[in-house]
Amino acid sequence: MTLEEAIVVEHLPDAGGYWRIELRAPAIAPRVRPGQFVHVRLTAPADAILRRPFSVFRTEDDRLELLYKPVGRGTRAMTELRPGAVISLLGPLGRGFPTPAPDRFPVLVAGGYGMAALYLLGRESGRAGIVFVGGASAVDVLCVPEFEALGWEVRVATEDGSRGLRGQVTDAFDAWAASELSDRTPELFACGPNGMLRAVGERAIARGWTAWLSMDRAMGCGVGACLTCVQKVRDPSHPDGWTWARVCREGPVFECREIVWEDDV
Amino acid sequence: MSPSTEPSLEVRLGSLVFRNPVMVASGTFGYGPEYAELVDLSALGAIVVKGICREPTRGNPPPRTVETPSGLINAIGLPGPGVAGFIRDYLPFLRRVPTPVIVNVWGRTVEEYGEVVESLDREEGVHGYEINVSCPNIKEGSRAFGVHLDMFRRVVERVRAATRRPVIPKLAPNVSDIAAFARAAEECGADAISLINSIPAMAVDIETRRPILGNVTGGLTGPAIHPIAVKLVWEAARAVRIPTIAMGGIRDAADAIEFMIVGATAVAVGTANFVEPRTAVRVVEGIRDYLVRHGMTSVADLTGSLRLEGLPCGG
Ligand SMILES: Cc1cc2nc3c(=O)[nH]c(=O)nc-3n(C[C@H](O)[C@H](O)[C@H](O)COP(=O)(O)OP(=O)(O)OC[C@H]3O[C@@H](n4cnc5c(N)ncnc54)[C@H](O)[C@@H]3O)c2cc1C
Ligand SMILES: Cc1cc2nc3c(=O)[nH]c(=O)nc-3n(C[C@H](O)[C@H](O)[C@H](O)COP(=O)(O)O)c2cc1C
Ligand code: FES
What we know:
The complex is a heterodimer of chains A (265) and B (315).
Chain A: E1 2-13, E2 19-24, E3 37-40, E4 52-55, E5 58-60, E6 63-68, H1 73-78, E7 86-93, E8 105-111, H2 114-124, E9 130-135, H3 144-149, E10 153-158, E11 165-166, H4 169-179, E12 186-191, H5 194-207, E13 210-214, E14 230-234, E15 242-246, E16 253-255
Parallel strand pairs in A: 8-9, 8-12, 9-10, 10-11, 12-13
Antiparallel strand pairs in A: 1-2, 1-7, 2-6, 3-4, 3-7, 5-6, 13-16, 14-15
Chain B: E1 11-13, E2 16-18, E3 22-24, E4 46-52, E5 65-68, E6 71-74, H1 82-89, H2 91-95, E7 101-105, H3 110-121, E8 128-132, H4 142-147, H5 149-162, E9 167-170, H6 178-187, E10 193-195, E11 199-202, E12 204-205, E13 210-211, E14 217-221, H7 226-237, E15 244-247, H8 253-261, E16 266-269, H9 272-275, H10 279-293
Parallel strand pairs in B: 3-4, 3-16, 4-7, 7-8, 8-9, 10-15, 15-16
Antiparallel strand pairs in B: 1-2, 5-6, 6-14, 11-14, 12-13
Helix pairs in contact in B: 3-5, 5-6, 6-7, 8-10
The structure holds flavin-adenine dinucleotide (FAD), flavin mononucleotide and FE2/S2 (inorganic) cluster.
């Protein structure tokens, strides 16, 4: 992990209200592994003091790209950054996705910014598989051309049916698993809303597959010091069978059997 | 600049000598290894580790922190490995770091404070104890230690009896007379005092009308509390002869120097570590520059150098 003053190279709005920001970060970019994130120091608003975590979407030589949605004060202010601006990055952080097992068929499941968190895995997996991507409407479905360019098959589900299957991304996955999986064993990699991750994990446990889930928790330090970002995980050595893991350090990626889901998600 | 004009940054707390007056505050720097890749630990005055109690603890349910204007409310709830876990998992690392280690200690009873310090006192590599009587996130009585003078005295006396290493009670900010707590610490044999801990605070999500923190309330830290801390440090430091370690919203050397002018011997950087992990190191450099600029030969000359001539409280 390194602290680096990165320079904004390009910053453009994308579909679905998302933005793509490309940063020159020669110390961090070449070291990012799939599923890792960077902790970005906001330059505005001035009274927002904490950094914000973002998955690294793509890397290319000394540059890295983030794909983000303005959802609050910090991310809205981020959209004002112009090429040439300098922002402080801390990264790469966290334990990302493992290398896909060679004897499994890789399956990616994404919602929201999940496509950004999964792209590097798709690029570096060594073999193309299938990607399931969901969104509320057609405009919310991101990165399809990027995955197709890597040779991955992409299946889309939208809640309003404006693109691909009408329904949840897990519906698209279920349909595929029922009719096209045949005798292959999939290995699942997922990033998206908690409900989606939980649904993916339940399927994996029921069928005996492995599923790697990238969890999203509000963060403070991003390096394991503040104990803000905790997630309940199984721990047989503890009398109650669970403990808190730090999503920024032990995560953000967990195998689905590690996660203890709580009723509110 | 020639070495002979290099100002001295060394400070003393009881029997301890620190290479400079800038530490990292408890709970904002983990146990040391978390920041080792980013920060030169040997450039810090001291490392104050996260609060340790007798048994392993889990802390509060999330959300554990919420950002507020220029501040952060936390209700982490003092999770930790317990004293045995700390000795086993973190002390070997810390012993290899050439920087004094101060262990922040808390307990649910007076006796527990004493027992934790006794366990740690058998170990090499622990250089002092910051006694956390003031964390707003522990409900089982601990808060009472920080705001009731009689309870406060009992804790400090019990810890004092358990060790010859420096004992540093950490004062709660939410008391009506901070000087009384500072004096009580000194009378009970403390080697220094530290302040301030976080200020009790709360935030509500107006859409759901629910408290944002899992623990409902927490403690405010960060730049928002700095001016409050300056006033409390001023009041506490001038009430005692033992040194004061000041913390609360330090972002840069100016904030640290302000604390020293009102009476602090040393300072600790807290929330700013999350924003810029190298803040403490930069504060050291900034203090050195200030001393040079003002022709001061020692950082000790800064402590209590507040000028009050002609003012109502100037005495
Ligand atoms: C490991 C990790 C990777 C991430 N990767 C990406 C990414 O690639 N692209 C992306 O767009 N976002 C990503 N996020 C989420 C992103 O960090 C948040 O959207 C951002 O911190 C919000 O900051 P803000 O100042 O705009 O919002 P705040 O002002 O902090 O909050 C405003 C609103 O945003 C909501 N919010 C706050 N934090 C989150 C969060 N973590 N997730 C969802 N909503 C939140 C709050 O509920 C609130 O209503 C990631 C988060 C994590 C933990
Ligand atoms: C996340 C977090 C955890 C903390 N944990 C402890 C702790 O375990 N023990 C303690 O005495 N103080 C704890 N504190 C308080 C700090 O040590 C310090 O007193 C306070 O944050 C004020 O300094 P700051 O404004 O620079 O952060 C914690 C503060 C934060 C933000
Ligand atoms: S964000 Fe601080 S421990 Fe994870």
